[in-house]
Specification:
The protein has about 525 residues and is mostly beta strands. Helices cover about 5% and strands about 25% of the residues.
Length: about 525
Amino acid sequence: IILANQGEDFKTVYGFYPDYEIYDTQLAVPDMVKYSSWGTGSVNLSNSGDDVFLMDASLDLVDAVSWGSSDFAFNPSVPLVAEGNSIERRPADQDTNSSHDWMEQVNPNPGDIYLVSDLDTQTPTPTRTGTISPIPTRTKTPTLSQTLIPCSAATLLITEVMYHSQDTSDPDGEWFEIFNYGFGDVNLGCVKIGDEETFGGGEGMLIFPSGSQISPGEIILISRQATSFSSVYKFKPDYEVVDSDASVPDMVKYSVWASGSVNLSNSGDDLLLLDGDDFVVDAVSWGSSSFAFDPSVPGVVEGHSLERRPADQDSDSADDWVEQINPDPGEINFSPPVHTPTPTNTPTSTTPPSGSGLVINEIHADPHSSLGDANSDGVVGTSDDEFIEIVNDSSSPIDISDWEMGDAFGIRHVFPQGTIVIPGCAVLVFGGGDPGGSFGNSLFQIASSGRLGLNDHGDIVYLYNQNGNILASYTFGDEGGDDQSITRDPDIHGSEPLVKHSTATGSGSSLFSPGTRIDGGQFSGCSY
């Protein structure tokens, strides 16, 4: 049952009406009735601290929750959350009368709940990665009591993976870390980690030694060889795979699952975390492997690691991961990812001045859910219909074969051989789909990575030449997230920042114009 302050406001945000409302805004939604025998005021939840409680007919308290400065329900109360986030009971049918039952929900989803049975009834099905892990946002709260969770890995996440260590130490220099974002100690004696995704396969799976545990907010480091790890980072890991230091506990081979050894492939592999029932609770894939998600995380250069950013975010996609050019085992980051280009992509210039080269002219990061068919394939796809439009504002053809285009996450597209942009014309890169338009005779391609993955409310687009130098870039913010593209106004020579397409001169309120000018006309060099 969902109770809202005002039904109309609730529907505006979530697309449907609640079951009841407090203030009458919609005849179709029944109103709650003020119970003056108990309280004379109105229900108005304080952001800094308050409580909600449920009473039965005898006025006996049957449930309550407190947050922030209030400790009516329990002490300590649930920590405050960010604006727009909710607090959610996880699992929904668990009640320990403590703040342990609650978490910050960054994606409020009224009407959906998460039950204990979602954990208890799982069977070993390695293809269902991440579906039972809650959306984590919590950090360690030292004042909370720490109750051992018997053989559950539900609050564990893989947070960093060094799979491509320096050649002199590869594979002995491999390491990975896990983080407990929950509020209770976790018994690691039943938890497994390894790179074999199939039961009975030939790669490796490891289990922690009996009696191992991880505290709330703690990070556990597992290295292939402790001596190789400590020679680089000047401290010892928590566990090692191959015995090299008697003072570091050894992981145990879990032969029930896999017969081989853990050896992370540089070209593409995955790392899985299994719980006591051998169910996959977290996984990451990179390079040529797509077990955890597709597309996988792009590969990193030698000596770099993959890092989860923020460390307590799990969307079961490559978007959770960044290339870490300065691996820092044992440290995690709760900040949103600020992706930087691979060092080989050394910034040597920004967007070229008018008449000198290639100009990022239009970016479509947020296609409209029903009007957003930018690639003209007859299907609206919020990912497929993303596009980037680049115009040749010079007097000569430009061969961009093997050039790369990317965003804050990493490289999204490599231009194939034979990609030549003629003077005054454009090249389009769509996120996916089957483009069916002429696009003003401009070149058009599909992102070679399978997606553009542009963040609606802020990202940066890069264009690299074949030497890895940045030839053009553009950074946008919230203006990119309004169900339409952003564009230069006028085309090509318009100053920054780019404007929302429907407001651009001559747009006629249209939401995008891939491959053409704002008004739908061809670019001068495309008229052939």
